[in-house]
């Protein structure tokens, strides 16, 4: 009798265990891993608006708006796959266009890669790499400036003296870390990288970023500043890398820790700025060429967790982690010429929301 009772108890426990295991399996979320397009191919998988339950009737209004606003290329990725891709105003998928200041984020990412490889440390003084005298600031003030200050736009150098980053044009106005100002001095990070890694900026960029994610494009020197040019899909590839926290398929191109730092507030003055990335959803923000603080989110119509690469004349990379979106816009200025952010951002997000919500 005891043996029968024992067998009955064991069977009961087994059945309960099996049932609980099934229930647990059913409750586990389905992981929708990101898709990555092949490196050396024009193939790129797509999704339809119907699959995502998006509003197809609003898509044409969005495309008409983009064309009217001087756009050239536009892409929406969802989880890596193309949902919308359109070209306007005699531009094609194979044409290259400039990133302008949206390309600052390429510099940020390369600096992250170099730090991961222990080639630089962003907390080190810039003069440790470039030597003293790279600015015209007093030596004790120049030695306050770290690579992180250049990433965060709080070097304390005068931003009102034009685009040149020659030593004579880099004048002291405040101690590093005490003043936020949008400034081309960030390009000195490219010299830091070349010196620290004993190579050229372009070679390091190509071998450690561009080629590893299948981008096209190249750097062009304009007014002593390196400007990146590529097709729209290459901009989307870069956005996809960042949206996956620096990982491309099974290859960690730049550490997740660095991307997390880069896409969060980097200093206590402009809450909407990371390491050359603009951040939405903060309580206040500063804009280029201004010391004013504005209350509210950078782009009110965009999701709060959105962060962006923004370039002159409305070059855009929007990344929205909560919605698994990467959105690219290339083209001429939508309205009047601008440094980075414009009213076009908010208007564009109104149209995007009508499609994706």
Automatic annotation (TrEMBL):
InterPro entries: Beta-lactam-related, Beta-lactam/transpept-like, Diverse_Enzym_Activities. GO terms for molecular function: hydrolase activity. Residues 74-330 form the Beta-lactamase-related domain. Keywords: Hydrolase. Pfam families: Beta-lactamase. This is Serine hydrolase. Gene3D superfamilies: DD-peptidase/beta-lactamase superfamily.
């Amino acid at each position: 009798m005891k043996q029968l009772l024992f067998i009955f108890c064991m069977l009961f426990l087994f059945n309960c265990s099996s049932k609980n295991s099934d229930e647990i399996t059913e409750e586990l979320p389905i992981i929708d891993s990101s898709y990555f397009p092949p490196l050396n191919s024009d193939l790129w998988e797509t999704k339809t608006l119907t699959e995502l339950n998006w509003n197809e009737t609003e898509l044409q209004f969005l495309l008409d708006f983009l064309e009217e606003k001087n756009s050239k290329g536009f892409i929406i990725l969802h989880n890596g796959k193309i949902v919308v891709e359109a070209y306007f105003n005699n531009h094609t998928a194979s044409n290259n266009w400039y990133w302008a200041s949206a390309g600052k984020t390429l510099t940020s990412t390369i600096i992250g890669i170099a730090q991961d490889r222990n080639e630089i440390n962003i907390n080190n003084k810039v003069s440790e790499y470039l030597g003293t005298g790279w600015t015209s600031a007093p030596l004790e003030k120049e030695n306050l400036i770290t690579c992180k200050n250049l990433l965060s736009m709080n070097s304390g150098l005068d931003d009102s003296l034009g685009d040149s980053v020659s030593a004579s044009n880099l004048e002291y106005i405040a101690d590093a870390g005490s003043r936020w100002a949008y400034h081309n001095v960030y390009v000195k990070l490219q010299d830091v990288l070349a010196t620290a890694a004993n190579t050229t900026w372009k070679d390091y960029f190509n071998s450690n970023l561009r080629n590893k994610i299948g981008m096209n494009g190249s750097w062009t020197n304009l007014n002593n500043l390196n400007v990146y040019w590529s097709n729209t899909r290459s901009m989307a590839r870069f956005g996809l890398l960042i949206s996956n926290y620096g990982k491309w398929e099974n290859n960690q191109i730049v550490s997740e820790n660095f991307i997390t730092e880069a896409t969060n507030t980097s200093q206590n003055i402009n809450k909407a700025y990371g390491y050359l990335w603009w951040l939405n959803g903060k309580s206040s923000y500063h804009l280029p060429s201004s010391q004013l603080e504005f209350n509210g989110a950078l782009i009110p119509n965009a999701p709060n967790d959105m962060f962006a690469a923004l370039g002159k004349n409305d070059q855009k990379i929007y990344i929205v982690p909560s919605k698994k979106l990467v959105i690219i816009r290339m083209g001429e200025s939508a309205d009047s010429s601008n440094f980075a952010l414009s009213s076009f951002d908010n208007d564009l997000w109104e149209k995007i929301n009508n499609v994706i919500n």
